[in-house]
Design goal:
alpha/beta, eight-stranded mixed beta sheet
Length: 276
């Protein structure tokens, strides 16, 4: 089972990349689960025809009893991807990180992986804070690899550095490893070089480059990934090629022609904030 946590600055395109990768894996014949780990609960919307999924935390607040089956807190999307959203607390009340932990505990009780037997599990995680519940997806038994999404923009690289540093702080715990960086292009000047320089300095590699594409926005307006909208497009092929390489290559081996120093980090960036 391939289990990947996708981190990055808020608004950098994590959900777009994660959902398109889920669709790509599904198009390759894999059984896929995507778990959105963000209070906004919008990670899976483009796998579900633009219709939001009721988050697990909303279910737990609104129902008298805990769910008895995975089907009560999930929905099947494009390519039969099983979609789950953790959600978060009532705005202004509670901690979103604790919501992720509560959701993961529930998924364990419902024996999610044993019941569904997925080939690929993708966690789409709010990446501005990598502590407490937001570190839960990279703990032992959940994700094996971490992908950090960034552009060449200063604040995106700043967040990427924070994520990588948080992971390094817990490299001796034997949890998920940083697999590398996905460059989601914003067409800033010298963008590729800026990201390569950052990757070299951080001891990471660029595992994929997603070009700026109007087709992504076009199909998101229809509640679709580009894979669903038109799998023949070059941008669709970019996601399909990345999915194939992630499936075929061992962890921390090159998955594209762009590579900096190989990362060997193992982690749990729980950050010691007391949430776990």
């Amino acid at each position: 089972m391939l289990k990947i946590a996708v981190y990055g600055k808020g608004g950098i395109g994590k959900s777009t990349i994660t959902s398109n990768l889920s669709a790509a894996f599904a198009s390759l014949g894999k059984k896929v689960i995507q778990i959105g780990c963000d209070p906004k609960a919008d990670s899976t919307i483009n796998l579900l025809g633009g219709k939001p999924l009721r988050p697990v935390m909303d279910y737990l607040r609104e129902e008298d009893e805990d769910p008895e089956s995975i089907e009560e807190i999930s929905r099947r999307g494009f390519g039969d991807v099983l979609c789950i959203e953790t959600g978060g607390p009532t705005p202004g009340l509670g901690c979103a990180g604790r919501g992720i932990i509560a959701t993961f505990n529930l998924l364990e009780e419902l024996r999610l992986f044993e019941q569904t037997q997925p080939d690929v599990v993708l966690y789409d995680v709010l990446g501005d804070v990598v502590c407490g519940g937001f570190a839960a997806p990279i703990r032992e038994g959940y994700a094996q690899r971490v992908l950090i999404v960034t552009s060449g923009e200063k604040m995106a690289l700043y967040a990427a550095n924070n994520i990588n540093s948080a992971v390094k702080n817990f490299e001796d715990r034997g949890y998920a490893r940083v697999e590398g960086i996905i460059l989601n292009r914003r067409n800033v000047p010298d963008e590729l070089q800026k990201v390569k320089d950052f990757a070299d300095g951080a001891g990471l590699r660029i595992v994929g480059v997603i070009p700026r594409s109007d087709e992504i926005n076009h199909f998101e307006d229809q509640g679709k990934t580009v894979i669903e909208g038109d799998p023949s497009l070059p941008i669709s092929q970019t996601f399909l090629d990345l999915a194939k390489r992630l499936l075929d290559e061992p962890a921390n081996e090159p998955v594209c022609g762009i590579m900096s120093r190989q990362a060997t980090v193992q982690t749990d960036p729980c950050g010691g904030c007391g949430e776990a």
